[in-house]
Amino acid sequence: MRELLFRGQTRRPGQKIWMNGEKVPGNWVYGGICQGRGDFSVMYGYQNGEQSSINKFVVYTDTVGQSTGLTDRTEWDELTVEEQRFWLRKHDADEWTGRLIFEGDIVEGMAYSSLWRGVIVWIDEIAGFGVRYQQRTGPTAWENASILKRLRVCKDQFAAKVIGNIYDDPDLLDGYDKK
To answer: What pLDDT shows up at residue 46?
Structure first.
């Protein structure tokens, strides 16, 4: 049984700016969620991976996404030094299995010898998570949740890698449709 984990933003990217005019990145929190009224919900959890205590955060409801319980194919040496240090606080490097995939993540990978990019979504028709591609409406074999679960098993199946999310990096999907 997988852990039910959600994430949401307390601050949207660019909502605040530094003194030099540079946009401050969005702030993500992780944990359990209570649906709020209007634009905001309440999340009980932790911020930026710091799990030392459980706190209450007000998040934008439209940024809330559930964890798929799966990890991507990001390798240890592809992480930044900061990401590696954070992981090593509570784990060994050889325990790394990849980044946790959340609803709203933008993933990219090879499937049937083509490079694909799409968004992780909940698909009612298959009652599971899948990948939704631009210019497509109905679920297809590409979007089947079982393909996501086979990330490391099949050589030419969809081997996803999280490259961003629709809240911080919407430009990753601009004009992109199966290149």
So the answer is: 67
